[in-house]
Amino acid sequence: MLTSFTVSVVLYSPFFQYVFPIHPVIAVLHITNNTSTPEMLTHKDGIQMRMNSWQDGVAGTNCPIPPGWNWTYQFQLKDQIGSFFYFPSLGLQRAAGGYGPVTVNNRAIVPVPFNQPDGDITLFIGDWYTKSHTELRDMLDDGKDLGIPDGILINAKGPYRYDTTLVPEGLQYEIVGVEPGKTYRFRVHNVGTSTSLNFRIQNHNMRLVEAEGTYTYQQNYTNLDIHVGQSYSFLVSMDQNASTDYYIVASPRFVSSEARWHDVNGVAILQYSNSKGSASGPLPDAPDDFYDKYYSMNQARSIRMNVSSGAARPNPQGSFRYGSINITQTFVLKNESPLRIDGKRRRTINRVSYSPPETPLRLADLHNLTGVYKTDFPTMPSNAPPRRASSVLNASYKGFLEMVFQNNETDVQTYHLDGYSFFVVGMDYGEWTPNSRGSYNKWDAISRSTTQVFPGGWTAVLVSLDNVGIWNIRAEKLDNWYNGQEVYVKVADPLGYNVTEMIAPDNTLYCGLLEHLQKPQIHETSKKSSGHAVARWSTQLLATVSLIVTAVIGS
């Protein structure tokens, strides 16, 4: 028997939490758009939406929710555990907030590869601009860069006043309360707009245990670079002098040497229950250089899969021998410095800047519409003239795909793939060639959905194409994503629609060429929600609702 739960999100306020029932099979997320914006969708970053891209919450699969309307996402969370988050996926709205955690816990029969922590703490870190997300969008439309952010937030709060010359009085900051001698699981997500951040806790080691749904080989870090869109779990033991507070810091990485960057730090407080003194002194050291590429790459390479541990299933994570599977298809996806296309400053992959059509791709396929998009996206880089296009990559269902992200810019890039996790088998500086495969990690590469690509370098990933649908590959930096650095990959079942893929939901919204199919919606926005966590959106701070579930196994 299927069980379900509902979280209603209507927008604004601090953090609300809804705890899921034991062993849920279907998640139900009810969204009401009470903003004036004409577009709104909610995406669950890292949740694979097995055979159900209808629920992915991005422009290629869903029509936006109009103002005053509501829409209900209904999806299964099977064969996944770990730390994820949701966010509004259109028009830089994430820069205004609206994100929250999605936590999927192990079933009781699958042991966790560490002792049960004494507590679970979620931290959202990210850069922040005083300008609204619409003003930021206007800047990009005018061909401008967003520039240095005005601050780094931790759980949507400003920095502790660690420096009286930099931090004004009266700012609200995050305090994390802990008990001496206990161990806590910290789930840390970079939900910012465009800045990679280095995360650390003063005088405390952080034992990395999980990255986006995969248990990791456990090792201690004093600091870790967390790039935009990435999520990690650490175990942190409260083993220091309990009479004083300690700094929790998120500071910029891979930025210029401009002096203002030194003034932008997110600072929260770790507070022991019997602390008698405030945190003091300088912030804990970050890597020596804002732009130390080799330190960060070596750190990234050290993050590996725990091959002996189970996760959503009891069998060990390493039992899927990805290194022995023959590659059936290769995409080399190259980004470069912004290019002028039709007089506009745009971002590209393989010199194509994605232009979303008014009709979502998956809906166009369902209704046999032609001309909405083309499947001519180049699978290899070229020197072709740059262009804007609604162009899609074709991939073979049940194939084994190699994707190489080539970053020919001076900024670190972060790429995410919806619908899947991939094995991050290699990264290096310079140009990728087929000979680079000799350096691939074919045994314990971390499996995740978001990976960094270092400036002037490449990252290679392998993915088993077992999830039918149309799935987004995108730059997680919001400014690059907005300016066209994305593409969709079409994984179609050759046997046809509704064979392995779930059918389109009854509440499908229609737009673009299919707008005439949309039925009127009766709005009852004055009624109060009963039995659900409710929050309201504003243009500055969007609601956060915690989604906590227990993993399930799909057939």
SSE layout and pairing:
Blueprint: E1 4-11, E2 15-19, E3 26-32, E4 42-45, E5 70-76, E6 82-88, E7 100-105, E8 119-128, H1 133-141, E9 151-154, E10 175-178, E11 183-190, E12 196-201, E13 206-211, E14 214-221, E15 224-226, E16 231-237, E17 246-253, E18 266-272, H2 293-301, E19 329-335, E20 339-341, E21 344-346, E22 352-354, H3 361-366, E23 387-389, E24 392-396, E25 400-407, E26 413-417, E27 422-429, E28 447-448, E29 450-453, E30 457-464, E31 469-475, H4 478-482, E32 486-492, E33 544-550
Parallel strand pairs: 1-3, 2-33, 7-33, 8-11, 10-18, 19-25, 22-23, 24-32
Antiparallel strand pairs: 3-5, 4-6, 6-7, 8-9, 11-16, 12-15, 12-17, 13-14, 13-16, 17-18, 20-21, 25-30, 26-29, 26-31, 27-28, 27-30, 31-32
Question: What features would you describe in this structure?
Answer:
Residues 28-107, 120-275, 359-492 form the Plastocyanin-like domain. This is Monocopper oxidase-like protein SKU5. Belongs to the multicopper oxidase family. With 555 residues, this protein is mainly beta. The chain has a domain at 322-491: Cupredoxins -  blue copper proteins (Immunoglobulin-like), CATH 2.60.40.420. Helices cover 5% and strands 35% of the residues. It has helices at residues 133-141, 293-301, 361-366, 478-482, and strands at residues 4-11, 15-19, 26-32, 42-45, 70-76, 82-88, 100-105, 119-128, 151-154, 175-178, 183-190, 196-201, 206-211, 214-221, 224-226, 231-237, 246-253, 266-272, 329-335, 339-341, 344-346, 352-354, 387-389, 392-396, 400-407, 413-417, 422-429, 447-448, 450-453, 457-464, 469-475, 486-492, 544-550. The strands form 8 sheets. Strands 9-8-11-16-13-14 form a 6-stranded mixed beta sheet, with no helix packed on it. It has a 5-stranded mixed beta sheet with strand order 2-33-7-6-4, with no helix packed on it. A 5-stranded mixed beta sheet has the order 10-18-17-12-15. α3 links the parallel β22 (352-354) and β23. The radius of gyration is 22 Å and the shape is globular. It starts with a strand and ends in a 5-residue tail after the last strand.
